[in-house]
Amino acid sequence: MAIVINLDLMLAKRKIKSRELAAYVGITEQNLSLLKSGKVKGIRFATLEKICERLDCQPGDILERTPDQDSDTGEPDATL
């Protein structure tokens, strides 16, 4: 399972700049950039809540679960 972050899409839909969102949420633009690129391992619920508040959206509008490429075989993953 992979989690895809659609933050760029929501920013474009709402016509909000990354700089504005970062300032509203109280994080650096660099950290927001890492989040948008999916290079983070986690996000605090408080941060997610502030993002959703400013973008007027639900967490599911930003986060999307996609199946792994290996899951099409029906066999369990080799790593646990």
TrEMBL record:
<feature type="domain" description="HTH cro/C1-type">
    <location>
        <begin position="13"/>
        <end position="62"/>
    </location>
</feature>
<dbReference type="GO" id="GO:0003677">
    <property type="term" value="F:DNA binding"/>
</dbReference>
<dbReference type="InterPro" id="IPR001387">
    <property type="entry name" value="Cro/C1-type_HTH"/>
</dbReference>
<feature type="region of interest" description="Disordered">
    <location>
        <begin position="60"/>
        <end position="80"/>
    </location>
</feature>
<dbReference type="InterPro" id="IPR010982">
    <property type="entry name" value="Lambda_DNA-bd_dom_sf"/>
</dbReference>
<feature type="compositionally biased region" description="Acidic residues">
    <location>
        <begin position="69"/>
        <end position="80"/>
    </location>
</feature>
<protein>
    <submittedName>
        <fullName>Helix-turn-helix domain-containing protein</fullName>
    </submittedName>
</protein>
<dbReference type="Pfam" id="PF13443">
    <property type="entry name" value="HTH_26"/>
</dbReference>
